[in-house]
Amino acid sequence: MSIKPAKVQFNGGELSPWLEGRTDIAKYDKTAKLCRNFIPLAEGSLKRRGGTRFVAPTPEAAEVTFKIVALPEEAKVFIDNVQRKTLKVARGDRVSFEVTADGYAGQSGEATVTDDMTLKVHLVSFYERARLTITTVPDDATVKIDGIVRRSFDAYKNSEVPYLVYKNGYDAVDGKVLMDEDKELTVTLQSADEGSGSYGDWGVPQYFVACTAVGRIDKMLKCFCFRFSNGYLAVVFNSKKVAPDETAEWMFFKTVTDGYDSLLYKKGKYYLACLHCTDMAYYYNDVNGEMIGAYNTSLEMKVCGWQIDEDGDYASFYTRYDGSVAGAVVKVYYNGKTVWIMKERKNG
Prior knowledge:
- The protein has 348 residues and is mainly beta.
- Helices cover 0% and strands 48% of the residues.
- The chain contains no helices and 27 strands.
- It has strands at residues 38-40, 46-48, 63-71, 76-79, 82-83, 86-90, 93-100, 107-113, 117-122, 129-137, 142-145, 148-149, 152-156, 160-166, 173-178, 183-188, 205-216, 219-228, 231-238, 249-254, 262-266, 269-277, 281-285, 291-296, 321-326, 329-334, 337-343.
- Strand 14 and strand 15 (173-178) form a beta hairpin.
- It is elongated and about 115 Å long.
- The N and C termini lie far apart (108 Å).
- The relative contact order is 0.10.
- Mean pLDDT is 80; it is low at 300-305.
C-alpha cells in the first residue's frame, strides 16, 4: 500500500486536468486539483474566500425597452443589425441603430439605454419640400427663418427649421418647426418691460448693428456692435467662444453718425469703421470718413477679414448672429437661440 503525504503548499493554484499525474513537473506538489471558496496565499497556505457585502439595491426591472419611432412611417429600422423597431435590453446596455428609406437621408448611431427609451428619428427628404409661412403680431416684426430674413420658406420635408421673431420693445420668440407638411404659424409678441431704458452715458439702446471681426495675423477676435443714442458699443471677445464672458472688452465710441458696421484693429488700436467690399479689396473708413484700412480679399482670413464661425458660416452676414432691444434689455441670438443678455445700467 502506497503512502501519499499530505499537501501543505498550494501557492501554485489549481492544476489543469490535462496535467494530472505529472509528478515530474516542479510545481506539481504546490497545486490543488480543485480549489473552491479558498484563496491561495503566497506563503503556500490557503484562506477562506471572503463573503459578500451590500452595495446597492438592484434595479426594479432587469430589462428595459428601446424603441424607435421613424418618419416617414415606411422607413426601415435596424437595431443591432436586425430589422425591428423595439428591443428588450439589459439596463445600461449600448445599442446601435440605423434608419433608412428610399429618397431620404439615412441616420445611424448608438444609444445607451438606462431606462425605457423611445427615440424619434426624422429622415429628411432629398426631393420633397414643405412650405413654412409665418405671420406676426405686430405685423412689422422681423422674421428670420433658418437665419435669413423672410416670412416663408420651402424646407426639405421632415427637416427641423429654426425661426426667430423680434421687434424692439417686445420680447423675442424663437423655436423650431418640424416640416412634415406645409405649415402656417402665427407668432404674437408681448410688450417688454420698458423700464427707463437708461445705460448711463451710452444713452438708450436702439438696435443691434453687427457681429463682426477684428484682428491681425496672430490674433483674431469677434465682437457684437450695438447702436446707442450716444454712439456705438462694441463687446469684443475671443473668437473660439459663441458669446462673450467676463473677460470681454467693452468699448464705447461717441458718435452720432449712422452706418458703421465694423470694428478694425490697427497698430494696437480699435477703430469703429464702415466696411466697403469690392472684388479686389476690403476698405475701412473711420468715423470721419477717412480710409484707415484696405486689405486684399485673398487675406480675408488672416487680416481684419470677416470672422468665420466654428461651423463655417460668416457671422457678419447675419446667418447666425442677430440681436434686438426689448425695452431695457439688449439680447444677442446665435442661430435663433439667446446667447447673451445685457440689462439696463444706471451708470455708463
